[in-house]
Every structure is written in structure tokens, then in C-alpha cells.
Design a protein that fits this description.
The structure holds two protein chains of two kinds. By secondary structure, chain A is mainly α. Chain A is built from twelve helices and no strands. In chain B, the strands form two sheets. Chain B has a six-stranded mixed sheet with strand order 5-6-7-3-8-9, with helices on both faces. Classes of the chains: A mainly alpha, B alpha/beta.
């Protein structure tokens, strides 16, 4: 634990600089590529809104904003976790030359995807203004919700990163799992209004056993519908995130020296 | 004898002859690690390097020199034994200190410097000197992927040469770039090495380099220490052996 904090302090400036220059490189790659940080979520939102409204007949108040919040949350999670699989391999040139705690790479990725998420959140705010969504102090709940999202994503990614080094086809398995996650997390439909009334058990399982769905649902509740977050479930997931992170970090510390020999 | 900068005690380093496993195999056989064969690259080496000394490490290809060097640099820990650096900072000078190809040379200087444990302010201070030494000119703001291999190693060399650490590990990079830069880097190297506080470990196949630069020589053969002594003592025997 002490080592973890020391390492974070030691590599803090590296993490930030690496994230910053990583994003810069992405932008430098093609003209106006930063536009994609906005266009990407916007276009996806349109696609899913279309499918949800016209094919499945979803009806939620402020629907585009509803989809936006879901997509943003999900994309952050799934992109980071997916990046985790090949993380050590991708950083081979660094890993074989100097010692660096491998979870630093995860934080770097989270910073990059986090900033992208904030960019599309700005878009969410614009849409909220456009739809004149009434907002009150409960909206402040998004900050702890983001924090929890960050923690859960970190926890899952530590595990994925570790096994990603050794297990060759982890990406195939993970892609399917994330696809499932995408559909059951309620990104373009509301678990609370569409599933809960029909089948209480399944609805509750879907909301409370899937932290991403829980965060998404609560974010919408506090931002759009003047609702309360699920305090207890959130607290439980925070504890779980810390426990898994601790296990993940320990595992990485224990095995990171063999990573170099495998990649 | 003066205080030692590096203590290596009975170090063994094993590589697991490990292939990556598939997801299903990992599920079926719980122990993915246990059945693997081991290959011992370094088989119990012990030595001390006094502060300020220049130690050459020689041995044929695959004898474990680079593995040992990487272990000393802390890139992976030995499976058995101990390596104590007595609190000295250390850097491994080898081609490309983890450059990110999409980024510019300038950004890579910062990244490499930070990876070596230097603060941003310190790198700010040294930045101009590094750029000047590397002779890259305007290329410093272009992405590293557009560099020729010579430019690439020039930059790598400049970073580690200017951002000095207490202990420097050099893995066969004394001949970098064109003839002019080679001369310059060799001179710089000599200057760095001759600093009395700096401890240097050099891995090289060139007997001339070793003869010119090193005080002592460690000869590793098949992961074991064959000889350790002054250059005059060890090098002739090594040359004899390699003939």
C-alpha cells in the first residue's frame, strides 16, 4: 500500500505528461481529429437514439441526453478495459528499458479516456440546456459517481492487464463480455422503467449487480429526473472496487518482473 | 577498498520457457505457471563494484550479460539473490529509452527523463543541452517515427549522456551515428566515465573498447562467473578463449 502511494507520487508527472502527449499525438495524426472526440459520441448517440426510438419504441424524457450519459459512462469503462489487454505489450519499448510500475499505464489510459469523457460531457451539458432540463443541487452527485466509475474501471483493468500478458486470446473473450455488458447496462433503454416493472428480480439484479449500470442509472437520476442515487449499493461497490484494486495491484507487483520475460 | 556502489550477491535469473496460453487452457489447467520449463540465464553471480569504478562485462552471445545488466537496472528482479545499489540512481543506456514513435523528439526527452526519475524542472534545464548534443536540429519537433535509425540512437544517447545518473549501464552503444558523432559520443562517454563519482558498467564485444575504458573486467560464460579481475589480467585470457 505504501509502495503504491509512493509510486503514484513518483510517477505522477510522468503519467500526466504521457497522457497529454499521447492525446497530442492522436490529434497531430490527422487534421481535425480532435473533432472526433465530439463527433464520435454525437453520432453514436444519434444511431442509438434512432434504433431505440424507432425499432424498440423506447420513450424516456430527454432521450438524447439520456443516451449520452449512458454512452459516455460505458465508453470510458469499455475503452479503458480493452486497452488494458495489450497494455504491457504496447509499452514494450519502455518496459524492457526501465522499471516502471505497470499500473501507471492504466492511470495514463484512464486520464486520456477521462478527458475525452469530459469533452463529451460538455456536449451533454449543452443538450441539457437545449432541452431545458431542470437541475438542482443533486447534480453534484455526479462527482462521487465519476470517482466511483474511475475506481471500478481501474480495478477491473488491473486484473485484465495482468492476464492480458499471459493469455493470448483474452481480447476475444473480453470483446464478447463487453458486448454483453453493453446491452445489459441499459445504455439506450431504462432498466428502471422497462425491466423493473415487468420483472422485479431481474431488474434489480441488472441495476445493483452491474456497477456500470448502477452508475449510469444514478447519474441520470440526479441529472435528469431529480431522483435519489442508490446510496447503499454505491457504497458497497466502492468497497468492492477498493478490494479488487488492492488484489490487482498486488498481483501486478508480484508478477510484473516476469512480464518482461513473456512479451 | 572504497565503498561499493553495486553489490550483487549470488544472483540467479531464470526465464520461464513460457508460451502464452489460451483462455480455455488457462481455465482447465489451474496452474498456468507451474508446468513451464526453466532456463537459467544467470546462475549465481556475485561481485562488488566499488564507487567510481568502470567495469567491463564480457562473454559470448547468450551468456547472460544483458540479462544481468537489466536485472541491475531493476527492470526485472532476480529470482534468487540480491542486488543492492546503495541508494544510487541508475540508468541503462541502450538504444531507444522507450521512445513513443508518434511523439516528437522533444516530448520523448521529457518522457524518458521522467522515466529515469528526473523532475520536470531538471529536464527543462537540460533540454537545450540535450537537443544540441543530439544534433537533431528541427527534427526535434517531428515525430520520432520519422527519424532515421542514426538519429534515433543519437537522441537516445544524448538523453542518457546529459541526464547523468550515479550509475550508468551501457549495453553496446558506444558506436552510435556517423563517424563524427561516433567520435563525439565516445569523447562524451569518456568524460562521463572519468568522473570519479560515477560507476559504470559496460557490456561490449569489442576488446579495444574494454581495454581503453575499463578498470576491471567481469567475464561471464554460460551464466556463470568465469573470471573477475583487472583488465590486464582478464582480457588477454578472454581474447585467447574466444579465438
Amino acid at each position: 500500500m505504501k509502495r503504491f502511494i509512493n509510486d503514484i507520487k513518483k510517477f505522477k508527472s510522468y503519467t500526466l505528461y504521457a497522457a497529454k502527449s499521447g492525446m497530442k499525438a492522436e490529434v497531430a495524426g490527422s487534421f481535425l481529429s480532435w473533432m472526433w472526440w465530439i463527433l464520435d459520441p454525437l453520432l453514436y448517440m444519434l444511431v442509438y437514439s434512432f434504433v431505440a426510438v424507432y425499432v424498440f419504441g423506447s420513450r424516456e424524457p430527454y432521450f438524447p441526453v439520456f443516451v449520452f450519459i449512458g454512452l459516455n459512462t460505458w465508453q470510458f469503462f469499455s475503452k479503458t478495459v480493452k486497452a488494458g489487454v495489450k497494455l504491457v505489450q504496447d509499452k514494450k519499448s519502455i518496459v524492457t528499458k526501465v522499471y516502471i510500475p505497470k499500473f501507471i499505464f492504466i492511470l495514463e489510459k484512464e486520464t486520456i479516456f477521462g478527458i475525452k469523457m469530459f469533452v463529451s460531457c460538455a456536449l451533454t451539458v449543452l443538450f441539457m440546456i437545449f432541452y431545458q432540463v431542470p437541475v438542482n443541487w443533486k447534480a453534484l452527485w455526479v462527482i462521487p459517481l465519476w470517482l466511483l466509475l474511475f475506481m471500478i474501471t481501474f480495478a477491473v483493468t488491473t486484473i485484465v492487464t495482468h492476464f492480458g500478458v499471459f493469455v493470448e486470446d483474452l481480447m476475444n473473450v473480453l470483446t464478447v463480455a463487453l458486448q454483453l455488458g453493453f446491452y445489459i447496462s441499459g445504455i439506450f433503454y431504462s432498466i428502471e422503467t422497462r425491466i423493473l416493472p415487468k420483472n422485479e428480480l431481474i431488474g434489480n439484479i441488472l441495476i445493483h449487480c452491474n456497477p456500470i449500470a448502477l452508475i449510469m442509472t444514478d447519474m441520470r437520476n440526479v441529472l435528469l429526473y431529480d431522483g435519489e442515487p442508490h446510496y447503499i449499493s454505491l457504497a458497497i461497490w466502492a468497497v468492492i472496487a477498493i478490494v479488487i484494486s488492492a488484489i490487482g495491484i498486488r498481483t501486478i507487483y508480484k508478477h510484473e518482473n516476469t512480464y518482461v520475460k513473456v512479451i | 577498498m572504497s565503498e561499493s556502489a553495486i553489490s550483487v550477491k549470488d544472483v540467479k535469473i531464470r526465464y520461464r520457457m513460457m508460451n502464452k496460453v489460451s483462455f480455455f487452457r488457462a481455465l482447465v489447467s489451474r496452474s498456468t505457471y507451474s508446468k513451464t520449463k526453466y532456463f537459467e540465464a544467470v546462475k549465481g553471480v556475485s561481485f562488488e563494484v566499488p564507487k567510481g569504478q568502470i567495469l567491463g562485462i564480457v562473454g559470448k552471445n547468450g551468456s547472460g550479460k544483458s540479462t544481468l545488466l537489466r536485472a541491475i537496472a531493476g527492470i526485472f528482479s532476480p529470482d534468487e539473490g540480491e542486488i543492492d545499489l546503495h541508494g544510487n540512481t541508475i540508468s541503462l543506456l541502450s538504444i531507444g529509452v522507450g521512445f513513443q514513435n508518434a511523439l516528437s523528439g522533444r516530448e520523448n526527452i521529457y518522457l524518458s527523463g521522467m522515466l529515469l526519475g528526473f523532475s520536470r524542472d531538471f529536464i527543462d534545464e537540460k533540454l537545450e543541452e540535450i537537443i544540441e548534443f543530439s544534433e537533431l536540429g528541427d527534427f526535434i519537433d517531428r515525430p520520432v517515427k520519422s527519424y532515421s535509425s542514426g538519429m534515433y540512437s543519437k537522441l537516445a544517447f544524448s538523453i542518457t549522456a546529459i541526464l547523468e545518473t550515479d550509475i550508468m549501464l551501457i549495453d553496446e552503444v558506444l558506436s552510435v551515428g556517423d563517424a563524427k558523432f561516433k567520435k563525439k559520443s565516445y569523447a562524451k562517454m569518456k568524460e562521463l566515465i572519468s568522473n570519479e563519482d560515477r560507476t559504470v558498467l559496460i557490456v561490449s564485444h569489442s576488446s579495444d573498447t574494454i581495454k581503453n575504458l575499463c578498470d576491471n573486467v567481469l567475464w561471464i560464460h554460460d551464466g556463470e562467473m568465469k573470471m573477475y579481475g583487472t583488465t590486464a589480467e582478464v582480457l588477454p585470457k578472454y581474447d585467447e578463449f574466444m579465438k
